[in-house]
Specification:
Strand 1 and strand 2 form a beta hairpin. The chain has 36 helices and 25 strands. The chain folds into 5 domains: 166 residues, Ribonuclease H-like superfamily/Ribonuclease H (Nucleotidyltransferase, domain 5), CATH 3.30.420; 107 residues, no CATH class; 114 residues, no CATH class; 187 residues, de novo design (two linked rop proteins); 222 residues, Rossmann fold, CATH 3.40.50.300. It is globular and about 85 Å long. By secondary structure, the chain is α/β, with parallel strands linked by helices.
Length: 953
């Protein structure tokens, strides 16, 4: 089989655009690349500047180039009897067909394959399928990205990597892939059918690297055979070892493993303080800034404590990212340097693990909503099963509709067969749970901590000592989990998964199965299912009507600070229900009664069928239906709680987007104050809780956190230690903070043209002085949008590009990557960019903070907390708004200096930091940068001077 890998560079991607360069790489039957053809093409029109900046191809390059007809005379013979391959092949194929037509040739009628499909299937865990990223992952030379011949060669090499990977896959996996594509009239179906025939005829035995079970090849063994690291009664490796001796050995091993390792004062203090709290059964608030080495700072004392005392230590993070970092980077390092074997397990929320029973059931029944996309996702996952040992969705790059697909195959307690499941011994969730059970240290996340609390501690192994990283998020996560959050689509998804129409949904699938059954009761059961359909339709209609009426209560005014200018919200107060609330509760009551009926009849039906029918297919379906019925019962109770509006200690509100209206409706009911519950659930129950973050103090005091997290009693009883570690960086030398004191006032400035135009000019001047490499943090998405286009325009002549959150259709991760890869760019971000963004080195030289990050005072939760403080005769602004904003401000400031070598400038455009009585709280909370204020026009010369001094040093 011969492949021709094609790539065109063009003046744009519309049908009227012209080809400016072609690249074609031939792959022969021996899988070598004997020929790469490349040629410029004279398009007969000027090349747009943005295409020249992307490809490097200018009007000069194509001036003497062959015409389209001349180029096609060379290209067409090479396309004879080949399979056409391309990276996002539709683009190149459309241009090829137009060119063939224009030059009087017959259209190409051969097979067409897309390397993106192959990459997704063969390498399901790649973080990006962009050609440049993939080439560097495989270590391929791709010298001239966006030049057609170089792209064609790189694509050909990537395609060969995919073919090599397919060669390595076991026969059963190829057979499953071939079955999956069999019903599709596609070239992928033809390809996998041919591959299967070839592999079956070779009769080469498969590698014993896999476990073969039912219809899959798996990378995992039975988890039931996993042994603990140490058996009971075995000698304890730390029996006679002090913490000092242990750390001495670890430091020695760290020096041998990491030649650049050096002991850091702040980290050494953290080791001691965390150990002291764990040993003495104390709680600890410990602020550790960037560069402390915080993860090791708490992991090493946790390992020592758990192994020495033979008691589990639980570690909780806020983000999955940090959990992954601990799993991928820190734990493997500690496995090398800790002088005895230990076990650390990562245990996430159940929905992160694949349910093999559901997945098998889904592909056997071809239960696909959008077949073209779903079949590729299923193919990715079939291959992934030969690679994954965790079954964790974080390993997969599903893209697009992948999230919806995953929801239908992820593990959940309501549809779990437990030991009765044929997959039980291979189950990823039970493996993770078992690993957590035999581990010394378990790494989980805040969400799972609270889910466990709500499930009466049935989910996590028992623990007495807890380390909470990213602890500044604990209060917010507690509110979400101890309260309620309901989305319009959560209810709709559950309903449509049960019954969408007579052909799709779990109930119609069960009815179909019963139709083929010889059981005498089958007819009776089918008529019960038929009677459930209208009730499900009624609930869907009532829910749509109720969502619409609730949405109409929300005043249609954009809240610019909530991120999207079209985000709308309304607080509902128990004492002051909206008029006509009674008619809404009537509608809710109808939903309540009908759902109660559906759940009762559905559960009775499934119990009967399960007892009578001995059929694995039916058993699997019934389990899933039961899970969905339990979800409906939960929605029913949640909706009743929300609509009752009768708990004074809870704040109720609704949110929706002005664009998607009632379809985007979200209902919230959150406790106003979670400090009492946190105290009861954790600080009174656990022997030691260590809370750490880079931002826990406000103006060197921990009082705000002590009040909000329910730690006051522990502090009064001497049960709480608080420590602020010294910064490992020399901020006075590394960071200059500049405030333009004559800058227009912030008040009423969203939409204030004077403020925006002054800001655009100042940002452009600063960006030129810092050669781009600038991150600008906004508190409102509306203002980001107002700045984006004008700034882009001003900087276009300077070769500095502008990237904007939500403006380029790129995810946060991709924006950051593009910013790091670009030699000169300005990145504009809002809420999610204030923390968790790590851009070390020269990529970031300047950080601009447009406004102090106060939460909008009219946000329902902020309003309710303020009212509670007023009742306690406290000042809500000073007790709530300022501390919250200071912590956020410190998070934002922390984006600039990430290593001891980083140097740069922070510009604060909000003059309240020097003009208001509360401004000092912001500045005094920072870790000691050099601070200067000056007139706006003096700022750029001062920045240039600072950077020059740094460069000379």
């Amino acid at each position: 089989m011969k492949f021709a890998v094609l790539d065109f560079e063009t003046t744009g991607n519309q049908s009227a655009d012209k080809i400016i360069q072609v690249g074609l790489a031939i792959i022969d039957e021996n899988r070598s690349i004997p020929q790469v053809f490349g040629s410029y093409v004279n398009p007969g029109i000027p090349i747009p500047p943005f295409i020249t900046s992307l490809t490097g191809i200018s009007d000069q390059d194509v001036a003497e180039a062959p015409s389209l007809e001349e180029m096609m005379m060379e290209l067409v013979p090479m396309l004879d009897d080949v399979v056409l391959v391309g990276h996002n092949v539709t683009f190149d194929f459309n241009f090829l067909q137009s060119a063939l037509d224009e030059c009087g040739y017959l259209p190409f009628s051969g097979r067409i394959l897309d390397t993106i499909h192959f990459l997704k299937i063969c390498f399901p865990s790649l973080t990006s399928y962009q050609l440049g990223m993939v080439s560097s992952y495989f270590g391929l030379k791709h010298e001239r990205p966006h030049q057609a011949d170089s792209d064609a060669l790189a694509t050909a090499q990537v395609f060969l990597k995919c073919l090599e990977e397919l060669d390595q896959l076991p026969l059963i996996t190829i057979q499953r892939l071939s079955d999956l594509f069999a019903d599709e009239d596609s070239d992928l179906s033809w390809f996998f059918d041919g591959l299967r025939t070839m592999k079956e005829s070779q009769a080469i035995p498969d590698s014993d690297h896999y476990t073969y079970f039912r219809q899959f090849a798996l990378a995992v063994e039975d988890w039931t055979e996993m042994e603990p690291v140490r058996n009971e009664g075995e000698h304890n490796p730390l029996a006679d070892v002090t913490f000092e001796d242990f750390m001495g050995q670890v430091r020695e091993n760290l020096r041998l493993t990491l030649p650049q390792y050096e002991s850091r004062n702040a980290q050494d203090m953290m080791f001691e303080e965390v150990m002291k709290a764990l040993e003495e059964d104390k709680h600890l608030l410990i602020e550790a800034g960037t560069g402390t080495g915080k993860s090791l700072g708490y992991l090493l004392p946790s390992i020592y404590q758990s192994v020495k005392q033979e008691e589990k230590v639980m570690v909780s993070t806020h983000t999955i990212n940090l959990q992954e970092q601990l799993r991928e980077r820190d734990i493997p390092l500690l496995t090398k340097v800790v002088p005895f074997p230990f076990k650390a397990a990562v245990f996430k929320g159940r929905q992160h693990y694949l349910c093999l029973r559901k997945f098998e059931h889904k592909i056997n029944r071809r239960d696909f909503n959008t077949p073209k996309e779903d079949i590729i996702i299923a193919a990715q996952m079939i291959v992934w099963l030969t690679q994954t040992e965790t079954g964790d969705d974080e390993e997969l790059n599903l893209g697009g509709r992948g999230g919806d697909f995953w929801e239908t195959v992820s593990s959940d307690s309501d549809s779990c067969l437990g030991r009765a499941c044929p997959w039980f011994r291979k189950c990823f969730y039970h493996r993770a749970r078992h690993e957590a059970g035999i581990a010394d240290v378990v790494i989980t996340n805040h969400s799972k901590l609270f889910t466990d609390v709500k499930a009466n501690h049935q989910l996590l192994p028992s623990y007495e000592r807890l380390v909470i990283d990213e602890a500044h998020h604990l209060e917010e996560v507690a509110g979400k989990h101890l309260g309620l959050h309901m989305k319009y689509f959560s209810v709709v998804h559950t309903l449509t998964r049960l019954y969408k129409d007579s052909r799709s949904g779990q109930l119609p699938a069960l009815r179909q199965l019963l139709q083929a059954s010889a059981d005498e009761k089958a007819g009776e059961w089918m008529s019960i299912i038929d009677r459930l359909y209208p009730d499900l339709i009624t609930v869907k209609e009532c829910w749509d009507r109720l969502s619409d009426l609730l949405f109409r209560l929300i005043p249609e005014r954009g809240d610019a600070s909530a991120g999207d200018a079209m985000q709308l919200s309304l607080r509902l107060a128990p004492a002051k229900k909206p008029k006509d609330w009674a008619s809404l509760t009537e509608l809710e009551n109808q939903i309540h009664v009908t759902l109660g009926d559906i759940v009762r009849k559905g559960e009775k039906l499934t119990t009967e069928i399960r007892e009578e029918l001995d059929d694995y297919g039916a058993e699997s379906l019934i389990t899933d239906i039961n899970g969905l019925l339990k979800d409906l019962a939960t929605h029913r109770e949640d909706l009743r709680f929300f609509m009752n509006l009768n708990d004074e200690s809870v704040v109720y509100w609704m949110e929706a987007s002005g664009n998607f209206r009632s379809k985007s409706l979200q209902l919230f009911a959150v406790p106003v104050d979670v400090s009492k519950q946190l105290k009861e659930l954790f600080f009174d129950k656990k022997r030691s809780v260590v809370l750490t973050s880079a931002t826990l103090s406000v103006e060197k005091s921990f009082q705000y956190m002590i009040d909000n997290l329910g730690l006051q009693d522990a502090a009064d009883q001497g049960q709480l230690n608080t420590v602020q570690l010294p910064s490992p960086f020399n901020y006075r030398e590394q960071a200059l903070l500049v405030i333009p004191r004559d800058f227009p006032s912030v008040k009423g400035s969203v939409g204030d043209q004077n403020f925006v135009s002054t800001l655009v000019q100042s940002l452009a001047d600063a960006a030129q002085a810092t050669y781009g490499r600038m991150l600008v943090l906004f508190t409102s998405y509306r203002m980001l949008r107002q700045v984006y286009e004008p700034l882009k325009e001003v900087l276009s002549s300077s070769d500095i590009s502008v990237l904007g959150q939500g403006m380029d259709g790129l995810s946060r991760t991709k924006l950051i990557r593009r910013f790091q890869d670009s030699s000169a760019s300005v990145l504009l971000g809002t809420s999610s960019f204030w923390e968790g963004v790590d851009i070390p080195g020269d990529a970031l030289t300047c950080l601009a903070i447009v406004r102090l990050p106060f939460q909008p005072p009219n946000h329902p939760l902020v309003e309710a907390k303020s009212e509670l403080l007023q009742q306690q005769k406290k000042n809500p602004f000073m007790k709530l708004s300022v501390p919250q904003a200071v912590i956020r401000f410190k998070q934002g400031f922390g984006r600039l200096v990430r290593t001891a070598q980083d140097k740069g400038i922070v510009i604060v455009y909000d003059t309240r930091v020097i003009e208001s009585y509360y401004g000092k709280y912001f500045l005094y909370s920072l870790p000691g940068p050099k601070m200067e204020h000056m007139r706006t026009e003096q700022m750029v010369p001062r920045i240039a001077e600072w950077l020059q001094v740094e460069e000379q040093e």
